[in-house]
Amino acid sequence: MTEFAGGLTCLWLGMVLAISFLEAPLKFRAPGVTVPIGLGIGRLVFRALNGAEVVLAVLVAAAIAVADVRWPVYLCSGITALVLIVQLAVVRPPLNRRSERVLAGEDAPRSRAHLAYIVLEVVKVLALLTLAGLLLAAAD
């Protein structure tokens, strides 16, 4: 079961890296993409990513619950889940409110919540990387 959880964790890590650190910043550099268009695309993409993350988090937790693992696996999975919960429940709502204002035509200032989301993404990537390593090492 640790192989399954490790594979799911690697999939989750790849999705976060591809979307948050590649797609998100690059879309605003594409010709013709305005801030409102980029925000509209970003909202759709991150809503889909976060939904997939919730499913992956549940699957990883279920696989870990039935596997024979040591406490660092529980710690890393807990940190990862906590970061995701904070992103979804605390940070995303102000980001959504700001993007709604921009999409409505308002010139809203840059949100500090955006920086918090990025910091949490970095923490989540480090936790996922560590979790994947622990799970795959336990599978040997």
Structural description of this entry:
This protein has four helices and no strands. The protein is 85% helix and 0% strand. It is an all-alpha fold and 140 residues long. The longest helix is centred in the middle third of the chain and has 33 residues, at 71-103. The model has no long low-confidence stretch (mean pLDDT 93). It has one domain (2-139). The protein has helices spanning 2-27, 35-66, 71-103, 112-139. The protein starts with a helix and ends with a helix.
The CA-CA distance between the termini, in Å, is 12 Å
How many domains, as an integer?
A: 1
**Biggest β-sheet, characterized?**
none
Order of helices and strands: HHHH
- Report helical residue fraction: over 70%
Transmembrane segments: 6-24, 44-65, 71-91, 115-139
Protein name: Transmembrane protein
Keywords: Membrane, Transmembrane, Transmembrane helix
Question: Short description, anyone?
Answer:
This protein is mostly helical and 140 residues long. The protein has helices at 2-27, 35-66, 71-103, 112-139.
